[in-house]
Design brief:
The chain is of the alpha/beta class. The protein has one domain. It is 24% helix and 34% strand. It has 2 helices and 4 strands. A 4-stranded mixed β-sheet has the order 1-2-4-3, covered by helices on one side. The protein is globular. The N and C termini lie far apart (30 Å).
């Protein structure tokens, strides 16, 4: 049962080479979240900068170094 629950949850990851990001970089993840509804758990935009950037409640920009 747990495996079936996990299969239905989606995390979106966008990767950017840029040292800075803007809200437009999160647009694909916002669209994905709108399409998937409650199945979308979190979205992450990985980028070459150094700051965490909040875009939505469950969509953030994170530096690659956070990995």
């Amino acid at each position: 049962m747990l495996a079936r629950f996990l299969e239905q949850r989606i995390v979106g990851i966008e990767v950017k080479f840029a040292a800075s990001i803007t809200a437009s970089d999160a647009k694909p993840l916002k669209s994905l979240a709108a399409e998937l509804g409650s199945r979308f758990v979190r979205g992450v935009v990985l980028y070459a900068g150094s700051e965490t950037v909040p875009f939505e409640r469950n969509i953030h920009g994170l530096p690659v170094s956070a990995l």
